[in-house]
Amino acid sequence: MKVILHDLDSQYTGLMEQKCDRVIHADGQYAPCQGCFGCWTKHPAQCFMKDALKEACRILGRADELVIVTRNLYGGYSASVKNVLDRSIGSSTPLSTYRGRQMHHTLRYGRHDLWRVIVYGDVTEEEKATFRYMAQRNALNDGFARSSVTFIHDLSELEGLL
């Protein structure tokens, strides 16, 4: 399953729906993670908060390919995209295992293929390096076999990349 997570205006959602199985619009119209870990233990992979991200753990956890379209924020994801990623912690379990010769949480939904990030906005060379490293680490932590980061200067370039 291909999932696109984006922080663009809602006008882009229609374009993205044609290119994937599920779209999560990080529009900021939801609560931030409360850190209760209920999605880990009490009701696995489901957030107790009744908003658009209630099923985010299950949607992102089942993605074979995750495409994240985000505005650059000092070499990291935009706040709204980061919020969605925080709310998806239930896609793993509280148990630990070794992956990549390092300790990581056990995956609830198994391994995945590609963690892909498309970054728009002004980006310095240092921020590009930070983004590449962060995407690689996020991919490993969430059980993705590989990661890639693409930087675009204009949103018109987006359609060819999805």
Descriptive account of the structure:
This protein is α/β, with parallel strands linked by helices. The protein has one domain (2-161): Rossmann fold (3-Layer(aba) Sandwich). The chain has five helices and seven strands; from the N terminus they run βαβαβαβββαβα. It has helices at 13-17, 56-61, 79-86, 125-141, 158-161; strands at 2-6, 22-25, 65-71, 92-99, 102-107, 112-120, 144-152. The strands form two sheets. Strands 2-1-3-6-7 form a five-stranded parallel sheet. Strands 4-5 form a two-stranded antiparallel ribbon. Helix 4 (125-141) links the parallel strand 6 and strand 7 (144-152). It starts with a strand and ends with a helix.
Topology of helices and strands:
Elements: E1 2-6, H1 13-17, E2 22-25, H2 56-61, E3 65-71, H3 79-86, E4 92-99, E5 102-107, E6 112-120, H4 125-141, E7 144-152, H5 158-161
Parallel strand pairs: 1-2, 1-3, 3-6, 6-7
Antiparallel strand pairs: 4-5
Supply the key terms.
7 strands; alpha/beta; 162 residues; two-stranded antiparallel sheet; globular; five-stranded parallel beta sheet; Rossmann fold
Order of helices and strands: EHEHEHEEEHEH
CATH uppermost class = Alpha Beta
Q: Return the average pLDDT rounded to an integer.
A: 93
Largest sheet features: 5 strands, parallel
Q: Report, as a whole number of angstroms, the end-to-end distance.
A: 14 Å
What spatial order of strands do you see in the largest sheet?
Answer: 2-1-3-6-7
As a whole number of angstroms, the C-alpha radius of gyration is 15 Å
Supply the CATH architecture.
3-Layer(aba) Sandwich
Secondary structure: number of strands? 7
Q: What is the number of independent domains?
A: 1
Give me the number of helical elements. Answer: 5
Query: Which class do the helix and strand fractions yield?
Result: alpha/beta
CATH 4th-level superfamily? Flavodoxin domain
Low-confidence stretches: none
Strand content is 25-35%
- What is the CATH third-level topology name? Rossmann fold
Helix content: 10-25%
- What general outline do the C-alpha atoms trace? globular
**Assembly form of the protein:** single chain
